[in-house]
Write a structure and sequence with these properties.
This protein is 68% helix and 9% strand. By secondary structure, it is mainly alpha-helical. It has two domains: 69 residues, no CATH class; 53 residues, no CATH class. A hairpin with a 2-residue loop joins strand 1 and strand 2. Helix 1 packs across helix 2. The longest helix is centred in the middle third of the chain and has 33 residues.
Length: 139
């Protein structure tokens, strides 16, 4: 009997999520023995457990900075971003779909940010346009 593809996928992802925490734990343990100090176990646990989320948001900010730097080097400007958290963006889109026109929230953002703007949803960046010329080229 072969393993389910889900288990194989999770096994491949496990090192990606565990490695940063294991490295922080190992570094703290080595530092504790090397410097003959005592680091409380609760500090070790908190630092080890929060490593991956901090790394995730740090990488996100670094990626944004790289895009800003590359745009500046080419004399370009980045699209305006919807300055709300991903959860607020999703909640507004769902609420708009439930209680009104499904694209209503996107029309509101188009009024606020212009015809072309960007939504940042944790791991995805979505570019939206209501510019007729852009839509004609796309179609």
């Amino acid at each position: 009997m072969s393993l389910s593809p889900g288990y194989i996928y999770l096994a491949r992802l496990l090192p990606h999520f565990l490695l940063p925490s294991v490295l922080v734990y190992a570094c703290l343990t080595i530092a504790q023995h090397h410097f003959h100090t005592s680091i409380p176990s609760w500090i070790t646990a908190i630092l080890s457990l929060t490593t991956r989320p901090v790394l995730f948001f740090g990488q996100q900010r670094y990626r944004r900075w790289l895009h800003e730097k590359a745009a500046a080097a080419h004399g370009a400007i980045l699209l305006p971003r919807v300055l709300e958290s991903p959860s607020v963006i999703v909640n507004k889109a769902v609420e708009s779909t439930k209680n009104g026109y499904p694209g209503g929230i996107f029309a509101e953002w188009a009024k606020e940010y212009g015809h072309t703007y960007q939504l940042d949803l944790l791991t995805n960046s979505i570019m939206l346009t209501t510019e007729p010329e852009h839509i004609k080229v796309t179609i």
